[in-house]
Structure formats: C-alpha cells, structure tokens
Amino acid sequence: MTVKRNSLDPAKLNSAASLPYELRLEDFRLAIQDVYDFFFDVNTSLVHKGLDRLDELLRPAIMSGVLSDMLTASLAKHSRTLIVNTYFNGHPDLVVRGKYPSNAVKAGEHGVEIKTTRKAGGAVDTHGARAQWMCVFVYAVDNQSEPAIERHAMRFTEIYLGQVAVDDFRKNARGELGTRTATLHAQGIAKLRKNWVYRE
Predict the structure, then answer these.
(1) Separation between Cα atoms, residue 160 and residue 185, nearest integer Å
(2) Which tens digit of pLDDT belongs to each residue from 155-187?
(3) Which candidate in 56, 68, 78, 190 could, as Cys together with 27 as Cys, close a disulfide (CB 3.0–4.6 Å)?
C-alpha cells in the first residue's frame, strides 16, 4: 500500500474571512499541514509493518477527538495570541494568552472552540449552547476505494469559523442513557457557513 501525503491548497482559502484574535489564514494552513505530516509519518510506519493506516484503525468518534486535539495544539503553536486552554475539558479549547490565570478556565468567553466532523457543511453536536467563536473542520477519510493501495489520504475539505450566540442553537432530545447536546439550527449553521475559511 502506498502512503500519500496531503497538502492544503492555499488558493482555496478565503481571503475575505473575518478572523478573530489576530488569527491568519497561514495559521490554518500550517496547522493542517502539521496534521497531514503526522498522519503521513505514522501511516508510512504502519503500512511498512503490514498494518492498516491510522485513519482506518480509529473509530470515527476517536478520530474526531484526535484531530480536534491536534488542531487545537497546532493552531496554538502558530497563532500570535491564542494558547491551549489548560483546564481539563475547559471551554473554549483555545484561549487568549494571559487572559485567564495559568491560561486555564472552565467556561471562558475569550477564545475559539475547535470542532471536527465528517458531516459536509459543518453541522456538529456540542455539549451545550454557548455564545462563542466556533471553528469547525470538516474532514474526509477514504475507507471505500479498492484496491486499498489506491485509497486517498485523510483530508480536510471545509473550515468554518463563526461567532454564534446561544439562540443560534437547538437542544437535542436525550434518551435515557444519552448526554444532552445542542446543535446549531438552520439559521445558526448559515451564520457559521457565511464566514468560511476553506472550501475544496
């Protein structure tokens, strides 16, 4: 199986996007390239040993969590003003450097929440409706192409970054064992999509 390395097409970045906290389009390009390089290195090693690629081994929910953590760390590395929220499971994922003691806050207002999903358009469940800057990365994993050696590397297809309010969400019904979640409703997702950062 041949491992392929992806790269983001800079021509598909939106120069008109409104970016908060001194973020730059280059920050997004570099963060995604960090992820692509990681997957290339790991998958090269796995395939050399006769194993499946990492993006085929991980379950979708685990994959989304891994990507969210990697993008958060990488954006923090390249950003001029944002840093990883050091509070465990704190919100948002990225906070303004020096705004909170030890850059840790359970529920802060100043920063960017990072989400990843395979759903085209960027609709994603959250743990609650909040006023926030939300950044959604949409990605695709090729588990279908045959023979397997022809499969494409994991890639990001869309990035959205929007400032949303509590009333932009709808609450989702919860079963007996379910966790309460909220999702942007039609007008909310339209607001998010309006400020797109990248689209293939």
Answers:
(1) 15
(2) 999 999 998 877 877 776 665 555 667 777 778
(3) 78
CA atoms of 135 and 132, how far apart (whole Å): 10
pTM flag (> 0.70)? yes
Q: Residue 191 in contact with residue 164, Cβ under 8 Å? A: yes
CA distance 189 to 187: 6
CA angle 131, 91, 198 (to 5 degrees): 70
* Contact between residue 72 and residue 21 where contact means Cβ atoms under 8 Å apart: no
When the pLDDT of each residue in the chain is averaged and rounded to a whole number, the result is 89
Token pair in block for residue 36: 């692509």
Distance CA 60, CA 85 (A): 24
Farthest CA pair distance, the chain? 53
Residue 193: φ, ψ to 5°: -70, -25
Classified as helix, coil or strand, 145 is coil
Strand order across the 182-184 sheet: 125-126, 182-184, 169-171
First to last CA, the chain: 26
